[in-house]
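Q: Got a minute? One more chain.
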Amino acid sequence: MEYKRINGPFLIIVPLSTLSNWLYELEKWSPSVVKIAYKGTPVLRRGLVPQLRSGKFNVLLTTYEYIIKDKNILAKIRWKYMIVDEGHRMKNHHCKLTQVLNTHYVAPRRLLLTGTPLQNKLPELWALLNFLLPTIFKSCSTFEQWFNAPFSMTGERVDLNEEETILIIRRLHKVLRPFLLRRLKKEVESQLPEKVEYVVKCDMSAIQKVLYRHMQRGILLTDGSEKDKKGKGGAKTLMNTIMQLKKICNHPYMFQHIEESFAEHLGFPSNVISGLELYRASGKFELLDRILPKLQATNHRVLLFCQMTTLMTIMEDYFGYRNFQYLRLDGTTKSDDRAMLLKKFNEEGSQYFIFLLSTRAGGLGLNLQAADTVVIFDSDWNPHQDLQAQDRAHRIGQQNEVRVLRLCTVNSVEEKILAAAKYKLNVDQKVIQAGMFDQKSSSHERRAFLQAILETEEQNEEEDEIPDDETLNQMIARNEDEFELFMRMDMDRRREEARNPKRKPRLMEEDELPSWIIRDEAEVERLTYEEEEEKMFGRGSRCRRDVDYSDTLTEKQWLRAVEDGNLEEMEEEIRLKKRKRKRRPDKDFSSRDDGGSKAKKKRGRPPAEKHSPNPPKLTKQMNTIIDTVINYRDGSGRQLSEVFVQLPSRKELPEYYELIRKPVDFKKIKDRVRNHKYRGVGDLERDVMLLCHNAQTFNLEGSQIYEDSIVLQSVFKSARQKIAKDEESDDDSEEEEEDEDESEAEAKSVRVKIKLGKDKGKKRQSRGKAKPVVSDDDSDDDLDDNRNKTGNEDS
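A: Always. Here it is, folded:
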């Protein structure tokens, strides 16, 4: 605008959580620029349309969601420049945002802003380049063929020597150089303090070790060569087991049934364990119990990132036990609440010591420089998610040195996850960092940096030693005074524990465990695997305190209330009606008069008809087919049905329900099988095909979900055919048995006729017994009994 005299219009697309910060920075650095924040209710957004049509603005700021939802309004403007913040969101070429921007929006110049252009694999980088320059980067397969050889993890990998690897990577750098500009924080802000990261190894408690051992035995027994007792195949069991092992490493009480059994064993009146036993059951919690009091004593504030919301709820119970002041932010936190939480934590003299965040929801676009310690409680498969989370604290404006503690359980699946993350970061290091896309470094410097990476690739093995108190203190202390204070605190803690006559070890030991968990493997499997189906189809768990997420309004009522500006009044009115309804006695049966006259028929839907139960064989067949489809995984171990298990709500995805008239998901289908609403496999097939057709209608052809739905259709048909073949083979064997029985019956009939011929003229003493009828429902024992009876009559 200043040099080229191009005044717009410019389109800036940002995450909702960063929109307010973008407005603040634009106002700070460019106060004369006319800007529009395109967000809010439908009424507010419609009110901005006249200004958009007039063209009397320079910059429009909006979010990814409104780009898709209001494309009919925003796509009519011919934008001079399009800027996408957190551009790695476009890494999937088939995602809806990319498709909408490419199809409907016109902008001759495009810019992506991201700290992580390459997260997992090279096709993601191609997707970003294809969005920016579709005419140059046309083919993903060609891009992969040219550059993917040094990073390929498939069996087709070509063994390259170091010189060939360097040549291919340098070729990639040469292609990327005109399109990629990289700026590090240390280059922009020379005064930014350092960030130091430590991987802190944690031990397991006795209960974790026992559960982990049982779960590992499950993997070995069901490695795909045989079926286990529940009929689960290898790939499905293995991938699910990895998730269960992660949960055990985090905290064993993430399995609700295990916690309930232990609560009974330890004598807790309720099914929820609290207090001292909460941290003694988990090695990671025990480590936090040693670290957090020291950080609080020295006024260091903490960001604690977790992958699982159930774990966050257990963490809240622990914070309550230790009286730590904390805030929580996860995927269910509303946008307005997020801004309020950030303000509370960042304000001067804030009382909150810990900010508890989920890595995916709280690791992007938030400014939390008030904290100087970051704890990654459990690592993400995608290492860039964890890097983004760390950078919530290590940002421009940070005054203190930032310490990052990544917790990892020794000799566990977490070490494998960490190794996979390091591999992905190594790809990023070779492609992005070694390219030195700062437009200043020489080719000699770039080659030397790349060679150094390749030489040190095999020298990063870490020791599996669990750090003692002194080593931990060195990790978290910023200076010598803090280190000495931490050593004294450890000494005081040990003395305090020694004075307690009923003291227990800091981690639970094997002699404290109930006998059933050590001896009875079947009981442990039952308690652990009970979680699996409940996890997929929902159950109750630890209660979140003081939060009500229930919807009191329907979608139409909610939208109308938002537009009219009386949302709170409408919600209160609905609550009052519900209370009155609960207090009102049931008058349905007492409203008839003594003369037996009918009660007045109520308006509305009649009561649901109760279905008679299906034959057990049919129910079993339908469950087998639907479980086969739900549990199907592709060659890479990805479960295709994951996004089809439960649909998002109307509030989360209203456009889906506008387009799809008969929404259905696997949870609803499983419920219908359980409640005997299908009268045959054909009814089940109708709903599964409807589910896949809905996915193909809503999603673009070629997208991941579209392709997955086609695969699931074929999996269903194959499973149904297999059931039909099994049934045919069973019928054939039954027919052979019937033929044998009929021939025997004919022979007996001949013998009976002969006897009757001999006894002709004699008076019958009693009515003869009826000839036994052989049906499909009779068991083999019944058939034998019938034969014996007939034989007795013949003799």
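A: The mean pLDDT is 71.
Q: Perfect, thanks.
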